[in-house]
Amino acid sequence: MADSGTKEISYNNLKKLVGQSQDLFLIDVRTKEEVERSGRIPGSVNIPIDTVDAALAMDPDAFKAKYGITKPPLDAPELVFHCQMGKRGALATEKAHKLGYTNACNYAGAYTEWSAKEGKISCVGSKH
């Protein structure tokens, strides 16, 4: 059950941030296989839901070595989680809040909405 305090971001607001905001940390909590099969939102980093707690608790150097990006600070203004349908993204957002990430939010429309509006973004060879 989602916490009533879970913050959410809309497609339009996320669209404005993707590729334009230096402060955006976009974390895809689907499995690696889901991402490879379905595609991804540009700029997203895959941290599966079952590893979110451990990842956000990592030392910043270890986080960067594992995920290739700087670990988000606790007060990151634009920390967004998403999954395929919205439920795991909400769960990841709640986990982040419990770890002190006060501005974390969930893209409730998730990859399903994004791909419907943007088209599939493939991880391997794209025909764009």
Largest sheet: 5 strands, parallel
Ranges where pLDDT stays below 50 over 5 or more residues in a row are 124-128
Tell me the structural class: alpha/beta
Number of helices: 6
Separation, N- and C-terminal Cα atoms: 39 Å
Order of helices and strands: EHEHEHHEHEH
Average pLDDT metric = 90
- How much of the residues is beta strand, in percent? 5-15%
What spatial form do the alpha-carbon principal axes imply?
Answer: globular
Placed side by side, the strands forming the largest sheet appear as 1-5-4-2-3
Q: Could you estimate the helical fraction of the residues in percent?
A: 25-40%
CA radius of gyration is 14 Å
What would you note in describing this structure?
The chain is of the alpha/beta class. It has six helices and five strands, in the order E-H-E-H-E-H-H-E-H-E-H. The protein has helices spanning 11-17, 32-38, 52-57, 60-67, 87-98, 110-118; strands at residues 7-9, 24-28, 45-46, 78-82, 105-107. Mean pLDDT is 90; it is low at 124-128.
Task: Chart the SSEs and their pairings.
Layout: E1 7-9, H1 11-17, E2 24-28, H2 32-38, E3 45-46, H3 52-57, H4 60-67, E4 78-82, H5 87-98, E5 105-107, H6 110-118
Parallel strand pairs: 1-5, 2-3, 2-4, 4-5
Q: TL;DR?
A:
The protein is an alpha/beta fold. Helix content is about 40%, strand content about 15%.
